[in-house]
Specification:
By secondary structure, the protein is α/β, with parallel strands linked by helices. It folds into 3 domains: 363 residues, no CATH class; 129 residues, STAS domain (Transcription Regulator spoIIAA, 2-Layer Sandwich); 187 residues, Beta-carbonic Anhydrase, Chain A (3-Layer(aba) Sandwich). 55% of the residues lie in helices and 10% in strands. The strands form 3 sheets. Strands 8-7-9-11-12-13-10 form a 7-stranded mixed beta sheet, with helices on both faces. The protein has a 4-stranded mixed beta sheet with strand order 3-4-5-6. Strands 1-2 form a two-stranded antiparallel ribbon. Helix 21 links the parallel strand 5 and strand 6. Its main location: membrane.
């Protein structure tokens, strides 16, 4: 969703005017708004992290100027982020501030290496449920900690301690501080409901200014922000630890990873908000790394891309990275010139701001999204880990659970049993691996002895353990007098295993032809048994069975038609039943499709159509008799044409010929005398044969077919279209623009469809190949 709906035209305008005019018109105003949002947030995050207050301002300045200039996401604004407050509080508590600054510098260097190695997009492989859970956990931790500050107490680094001590804190309120903190929170909650003119002032700025003015006017005895005597007197703060290098390295990696992930996710979100230049994620990591190296060296907090400031930047009309840079300049000037104003801000007011920010990190829309995708457990576990242990542990637990869920979803199969008594059907779907063997064994071993079991395998992978389970059970069941029919839908994993071929190389399996597309001979085996890999499949004898009073044969001896209809009822009917029920009241096809009765031509396959799409007429040679012969043996075709055009109102008539057509060969070579009916029907093809002898050669993809029968098939299609135009009904519909006549040709051997260009009488290839030639 684009926040600024007029941004596309504005971006085009920006490309056409000098850069400095764009900066003055768009970036300068936007930078001022972002600056007003950034100052209170930077102070509050420093407070929540347990760092010197000025460290938040230093990070805001560096995030704007350094990361803004060097980063790869032009409209992203960087600074101290709420997502790192928990980690920073623990790090400062463990190492002290000076060593923490060194950790920030080292983390920035690691980010630069990440960017140079071009692994930025790999961070996006982390499940969104983990990211949302991490942010929610951070938000809950911030709220639990800052509630103590609002109530006039001190925040603990442990969320559990904050929970346990909260009742005591409620009994020991500090009146002025509590009032100021709750007032700040109240202003933030109601600000969005005020008139638009009022809401032009950012809510964080309005809340902090109003509460600070009230505190100064009333002289409230609440603890204030404490800045150094000279905020510009910055010393190089980093200091390496005297020992514990393993813990130091873990802290560096933790901050680098979290800062990188948060920055990249923010950059992705910013890209979705505008229509300008897309971000370069590798360069963004380098810019973030340089920013953190600078911030740590100057005694500032770590920086990340911050979605709150970035979305404000886009929404207020920023066009280039100048806005982010200028916002950093404004923070620097404000800090240098108005330090006394900052020192008037009550800590409880900043705590109220942080409680509001933390609560917003628990996003209900994210929870609904996670629930919709079935990842709520992943979200909850990550939140619990972040709140109850620490951020890194929570994220690692979430990643571990996501791996387990992935294994479950990709390597776990659905197994269910159908039927009663001595006839059972076991359907296995998904990846059949060792993980499913215990459940599969329990179901198979629970089947009655001497029963007939159809084992339907709809699996995309079968490992050795699962194959051994099935094979051993099948042999045991058949030895006990039972019968097993193995029906593999898709790749014949089980058949290959029984034939001695490797079954564990999924990458070499190749694609299996879907049953609705494959001929019977490719998926049916005699007596229902599986066959060895690559062996020819025999189908049951199709000659008429002897007349007798015996019941219908068993399914394993059924004709291909019977087995095919059984397959339809079992697998296809449930999928198309809803569509068929909608079509039950009547048909409204788009196309009349006239084609040959040849068994190799399957109209719905070559046109990717389904029930209700085409009204189909099939005959030997896809012939349309001349209109003057619309009675007699031509009545069947013409009655269908008239019904399709006059009653159904189709918008297109297609005549489809094909290669290796037996009717075309018969026209060229003659029909045996005993086939009198066929000879009479093919008489309607004589005009096409005459056309092929006298007219300009028909062309297939620009060339005349080498085989005379294929050349005749092209001419025949053209002739049948002419016969259709002889009908007053068809001609009138064409002239009104309500009907289109289309010629089609199928090269059976190459599975290539060609469509007639009516201007050149050239049959051109359909699909990607044809589109490429058209260009």
């Amino acid at each position: 969703m684009t926040l600024n709906t007029g941004q596309e035209s504005d971006q085009q305008e920006a490309d056409a005017v000098p850069w400095w005019k764009v900066v003055l018109r768009h970036d300068l105003p936007a930078s001022l708004v972002v600056f007003l949002v950034a100052v209170p947030l930077s102070l509050g995050i420093a407070l929540a992290s347990g760092a010197p207050i000025v460290a938040g301002l230093i990070a805001a300045v560096v995030g704007g100027i350094v990361a803004g200039a060097a980063g790869g996401s032009p409209l992203q604004v960087s600074g101290p982020a709420a997502g790192l407050t928990v980690v920073m509080a623990e790090t400062i508590n463990q190492f002290g501030w000076a060593v923490t600054c060194a950790i920030t510098v080292a983390a920035g260097l690691l980010q630069v290496l990440f960017g140079l190695s071009r692994v930025a997009r790999a961070a996006l492989a982390i499940s969104p449920a983990i990211v949302h859970g991490m942010l929610a956990g951070i938000g809950i931790t911030i709220v639990l900690g800052q509630l103590h500050v609002i109530l006039g107490g001190d925040s603990n680094s442990s969320a559990i301690d904050n929970i346990l001590q909260l009742p005591g804190q409620l009994l020991d309120l500090h009146g002025p501080a509590t009032f100021l903190g709750l007032l700040t929170l109240g202003i933030l909650l109601v600000w969005g409901k005020l008139p638009t003119a009022v809401r032009k002032v950012p809510a964080p700025l309005a809340a902090i200014v109003l509460v600070t003015v009230l505190a100064v006017v009333t002289g409230a005895s609440a603890e204030r922000v404490d800045l150094p005597s000279s905020v510009l007197d910055i010393q190089f703060a980093p200091q390496l630890p005297g020992g514990g290098w393993a813990d130091f390295a873990v802290a560096v990696l933790t901050i680098a990873l979290i800062a990188s992930i948060e920055s990249l996710l923010s950059a992705v979100a910013v890209d979705k908000m505008h229509t300008g230049k897309r971000g370069n994620f590798d360069r963004e990591l380098i810019g973030q790394g340089l920013g953190n190296m600078t911030s740590g060296a100057l005694g500032g907090l770590p920086i990340t891309g911050v979605i709150v400031r970035s979305s404000t930047n886009v929404a207020t009309g920023a066009r280039t990275r100048a806005s982010a840079i200028l916002h950093g300049v404004w923070v620097l000037l404000f800090t240098a010139l108005l330090a006394t104003v900052i020192e008037s801000i009550p800590l409880a007011a900043l705590a109220g701001l942080l409680v509001h920010v933390g609560a917003k990190l628990v996003n209900t829309a994210h929870i609904r999204e996670v629930l919709r995708h079935g990842d709520l457990s992943l979200y909850v576990v990550t939140v619990a880990g972040v709140v109850l242990i620490d951020l890194l542990s929570g994220v690692l637990i979430g990643i571990g659970l996501s791996v387990l869920l992935m294994l479950h979803r990709t390597m776990w199969s659905a197994v269910h049993s159908e039927g009663e008594g001595d006839t059972r059907r076991i359907v296995i779907e998904g990846a059949l691996t060792f993980l499913s063997v215990p459940r599969l064994s329990a179901i198979l071993n629970g089947l009655p002895e001497r029963s007939t079991v159809t084992l339907e395998l709809v699996v995309d992978y079968l490992d050795h353990a699962a194959f051994d389970c099935l094979h051993t059970w099948q042999e045991a069941h058949e030895r006990s007098g039972g019968r097993v029919i193995v029906d593999e839908v898709g790749h014949p994993w089980f058949a290959r295993g029984k034939g001695g071929s490797p079954i564990v190389r999924k990458d070499r399996a190749g694609a299996a032809v879907p049953r609705w597309l494959a001929p019977w001979s490719e998926w049916m085996a005699r007596d229902g048994a599986t066959v060895e890999a690559d062996a020819p499949v025999r189908i049951p004898d199709q000659r008429p069975a002897p007349q007798c009073d015996t019941p219908d044969p068993a399914p394993s001896h059924a004709t291909p038609l019977r087995r095919g209809t059984s397959e339809f009822q079992t697998r296809t009917a449930p999928l198309v039943r809803e569509t068929m029920s909608r079509l039950a009241a009547g048909q409204q096809p788009h196309t009349l499709f006239i084609t040959c009765a040849d068994a190799r031509i399957v109209p719905n396959v070559i046109t990717t159509s389904g029930p209700g799409d085409m009204f189909t007429v099939r005959n030997v040679g896809n012939l349309v008799p001349p209109h003057e012969r619309h009675s007699g043996d031509g009545a069947a075709v013409w009655s269908s044409v008239e019904f399709a055009v006059g009653v159904l109102g189709v918008s297109e008539i297609v005549v489809c010929g094909h290669s290796s057509c037996g009717a075309m060969r018969a026209l060229l070579d003659g029909v045996p005398e005993e086939l009198t009916g066929l000879a009479g029907w093919l008489g309607h093809g004589e005009p096409g044969l005459e056309r092929s002898r006298t007219a300009t050669p028909a062309r297939l993809d620009g060339a005349e077919p080498a085989h005379a029968g294929d050349a005749l098939a092209l001419h025949s299609v053209l002739q049948q279209l002419d016969h259709l135009r002889e009908s007053p009904l068809v001609r009138s519909a064409v002239e009104r623009g309500e009907l289109t006549l289309t010629g089609m040709y199928l090269d059976v051997g190459n599975a290539q469809v060609y469509l007639l260009d009516p201007v050149t009488d050239n049959f051109e290839p359909a699909g990607v190949r044809g589109a490429a030639q058209a260009r």
